[in-house]
Amino acid sequence: MIWLVGAGPGDSGLLTLRGYEVLKRADVVIYDRLVSEAILAMIPEDAELIDAGKSPGNHTLSQREIEAVMIDRAREGKNVVRLKGGDPFIFGRGGEETEAIIAAGLAFEVVPGVSSAVSVPAYAGIPATHRDYCSGVSIFTAHDKDNLLPDFSDTTSIFLMGIAHAKELQEKLLLTLSPETPCAVIQDGTTARQRIIRTKLASLHEAVIKNGITPPAVIVAGNVAGLSLDWRSNLPLNGKRVIITRPHGRGESLASRLRDLGAEVIHLPAIRTETLHGALDGVSLGGYDWAGFTSVTGAESFFGLLAESGRDVRELGSARIAAIGRTTAESLSAHGLRVDYVPEIYDGVHLAEGIAQSGGRVLMFRALDGSQDISQTFRNYGIESVQVYIYRIDYVKLVHVPNYTDIIIFTSSSTVRGFCQSVNTMRDVKAVCIGSQTAREAVRQGFSDVVIAEQADIDSLVKAVLSCS
To answer: Out of 11, 54, 373, 457, which one is annotated catalytic?
Structure first.
């Protein structure tokens, strides 16, 4: 994968969140001279750094060499970030590099950056536009590809908030531009509903009316409007909006994967979790054959409570450790606790059944008011179990809910209930669920189109979402 990332004008605080997100995942970073030291310091230590800096008369690598290195590293299966000052598509030769990537047939994404054209004046207290002084701004480079002053009449015109005045705009542009000048109208840009209408200046207003274009939309007039370096259309989730209902701190990796595939992702945490302080007070951890954990939150709460009370994990003695899924097992392993059993199907019932078949006394670390299926399963098998409730789940009142979506991801029954408590609509949307328990709750809440991920992990969720597209 290749990302063309705009690093902004210098201040590391002006690197976009998406830019930072992909930069932290980079195996290779090819960076320009104007990328600040503060942003270079964010690059992972084990990433390969390639200096592609250019100054007048001194090019570390030629443009063709930069493109070749970028493509070669990506073909090796590496995550490549082409890190450029400002914005890649404003005098950054990002268009040329995009053409090279498309010709190579590789997947890529353009991550826009904050351009120095507007940010540097802003930091100096100079607004690029002001209703009392001007109604537009033109951006030029002081030299063309032959190092000459450019022809200032051969420029790109970009208009914001122009749809209602498309006819008048067309008439004025025709006073100076050819009727054959390429134009593009981009509605709902950068979102799942983005539409691009291409036309000629002579038919600009007609195209706006014919295609039912409504604000917000941007109008571009000039030769570049005839280019089509579209990187989004080849992504499998392009045009899809996905809502993730996991709590804060739990959905970032999934969101990143879905964005890589072209989705517009909205993180709406439907629940929050809270460790129940003092939950281990007076609880004996020894004398059990099994200790079971039903979630990553449970694992983290357990170790937090141990530290809080000055106790030690060795109190579990020789108890074998069971985890509901791979992610929970990884969390326990990170704390030095080796996991002995993970069920093939990642849900509470299968966890309990697997433990029960080995017999012995069981200590389970659970969420307060969680599903009773686990306890009932142990009773069905005649297994003695003690349920220790170490964290609670609260529903979050969702306020900024979008008016539409294509897919909602639920990772537990509580996320379904939390979402439905705030949102009475969207029951006709595809619901992607972890486990049969979550799916049953989604059906109970009125969802009719339910897809169950094969496993309770990110790879399976992504696969399930792709199956919906």
So the answer is: 54
Q: Which two tokens stand for residue 27?
A: 């195996």
- Same structural domain, 29 and 163: no
Here the tokens at position 317 are: 């003695």
Q: What is the pLDDT of residues 223-276, one digit of tens each?
A: 889 988 888 888 999 999 999 999 988 888 999 999 999 999 999 999 999 999
Task: Evaluate if residue 368 carries a pLDDT over 70.
Answer: yes
Q: Is 210 part of the annotated catalytic residue set?
A: no
Helix pair angle (94-104, 63-75), 10° resolution? 40
In CATH, what number is assigned to the domain containing residue 83? 3.40.1010.10
* CATH number of the domain bearing residue 248: 3.40.50.10090
Structural domain that includes position 444: 241-270+396-468
54 tagged catalytic: yes
| Catalytic residue from among 11, 24, 27, 32 | 32
Q: Dihedrals φ, ψ of 392, to 5°?
A: -125, 160
Average pLDDT over residues 131-139: 83
Q: What is the DSSP letter of 261?
A: T
Q: Report the number of distinct structural domains present in the chain.
A: 4
The secondary structure element, H or E, covering residue 424 is none
pLDDT score recorded for residue 437: 86
